[in-house]
Each structure stands twice: as structure tokens, then as C-alpha cells.
Design brief:
- There is one protein chain.
- By secondary structure, this protein is an alpha/beta fold.
- The protein has two domains: 5-123 and 305-321, Nucleotidyltransferase, domain 5 (2-Layer Sandwich), CATH 3.30.420.40; 133-299, ATPase, nucleotide binding domain (Nucleotidyltransferase, domain 5, 2-Layer Sandwich), CATH 3.30.420.
- Helix content is 43%, strand content 18%.
- It has helices at residues 45-68, 73-78, 92-109, 118-124, 169-179, 187-194, 217-228, 232-237, 239-265, 280-293, 310-321; strands spanning 5-10, 16-22, 25-32, 82-88, 113-117, 137-142, 147-154, 157-163, 269-273, 296-298.
- The model has no long low-confidence stretch (mean pLDDT 93).
Length: 338
Amino acid sequence: MDSICILAIESSCDETAASVCCDGVILSNSIATQSIHEQYGGVVPELASRAHMQNIVPVVDIALAEAFKTLSNTERLAKISAIAFTQAPGLIGSLLVGAQFSKSLALALNKPLIAVHHMQAHVLANLIGNDKPDFPFLCLTVSGGHTQIVLATSPLNLTILGETIDDAAGEAFDKSAKLLGLPYPGGPLIDQYAKLGNPLKFGFAEPQIPNLNFSFSGLKTSVLYFLQKQTPEFILENRNDLCASIQHTIVTILLKKVKKAVVQTGVKQVCLAGGVSANSGLRNELQAMGVKHGWKTFVPSFEYCTDNAAMIAMTAFYKYQEQDFIALDSHPTARAAW
């Protein structure tokens, strides 16, 4: 039986990425980052799409070279079974670059085309490598734009049990960091300073949302009102404790819902996914909670937490087995339900 080799493209935001997956094994994972957004305090969509156009060819070439080593470019492409790309959600200009490139390549090579939902791919990042969960498992997916609890009963059977009704946890980290005067991206800096602070020094609001849904708008407002009453000197002197307290509140909100989901479903395999799953406080607390309650916990390697093409390739591998292909006239969308 011939190997199934997927070339995957990820371009949903400000990371241009390509990966090759053969028979469920990631052979390469190439990523080009965009530092230009730091001076603007956030991702500028027009600049992001322009950078994708500059980066996509070299990123794909690197991924192919790493996967198949010394073969010529023609021989590398001949080994590819299908082309996959992120179809949704994301910045529409960024998505269009990846989609058009992938469609053109699929047409030129006469290869099938596979569309992947970005958030589903984050969940399946937990299937990369040897230490991976069995089905069913729960996944807390936490990123700048999404916060979800997902029940996975098979690679392509994923059900959202709860999600944010307003802001995402990643946004809460970044907005709080901005209020503290930290540069973009601020979430990782909060994690860094939190390691040096007292997580119980300051108290912030924990919105009480029913079921398994989340809300972080109230927490952001609580942080805003507290900091508005303080002097810049106070904020600087207490930066470590403030970061630790904010992080502790966000992590507590997240893990209370995870515990509730475990009780409701009876599923005791719990995974993390998404960019915020790189947060050391969240990773450590989930693992500690797993030990306390007898759960088996899984956290992807750091390179598979943030936006990457390996998770797109892994998802496409399972979709290829189901012959789940799409036509060349399909389009990316900024927002899309599963």
C-alpha cells in the first residue's frame, strides 16, 4: 500500500507554516514568524497577508526539503498524496494566501485538496508523537480568539461542549498585559513574571457562567478598574504579583470548567491545545489536577501549541483516509462553525 503523504499549509493569522506528514508521522514543520506587528501592539491584517505572500514559497520548500532530505524539488512533490490548507477561521487576507497557493499547487500537480478547520486541528495536535490519548478524550482548546472544551470520540468526530460567550482566554491575557504596560505579545510575558509573583496577592472577578461555557469580559473589566486606581509606580513595583494573580484567575476559571466536564462526561483523559496551552501555569495546574483526581493528562510540545502546519497535516491525514476532499472552487472563510 502506498504511503499517505500530506503537504499542509497554515496561514490563518501571522504565522506562515508548512508541514509534511506521512502515514501519521510528522516529517517536517517549518514556520516563519512576523515580528513587524510588535510595533503596532497587535496583528495588522494587511501586513500579515503581505508577509504570507513573501514567506510561503520558501517555507514550503524548507518543509519539503526537511521531509525528504536530498531529493530534488520535483521528486519531493511527486511523493505528496494531497495538499491541505487552513480554510477557517482566521484573517481573511491571510487565509486567502494559503488557500490560493494550495489550490494552485493541487491543480498543477493533479493532487486532491483537503480543507482543514483551524480549531479542529488544534485538538488533533495531541495526536502528534508517541505519547497521545486514546479515544474518547476531552480537550481544553485555548487561544487568542477561542476558548472551548471539546469531546473527541474519534479523529473526525469532535463535539464542542462549551465555549466562550464573549472574549477568549488568550485575549484576556494579552489585554491584561497591555493594561500593565507590557509590550505585544503580552501573554507570554505575564507567564514569565507570574513565576516570580504571589498568585493570591490580588483578587479579580471570576464570572459565573452556567454549563460549560466561558466568559472573560468581566475579568478584563475587573483588571481595568483595579489598575485605573493605581499609580504607574505601584503597577511596576507589584508587576510580578499582578501577573501571577491575573494568571491564577484565568487558569482557575479554565480548570473549574474542565473539572465539571470530566464529571459530566466521565471521560478522564484530558488534553490541552491552542496557543495559551504553552502557558506554564496552565500546563502545571492541569497536570497537578490530573494527579489529584486520577486523570490522564496530555499537553502537546510547545512547537505544536501555537499556530503550526503540523496540526493541519495531521488532521488532513485522517481526512484523506475518509476521502474527504474539496473542489478547487472552494473558498476560505474568516468565521466558520465546525
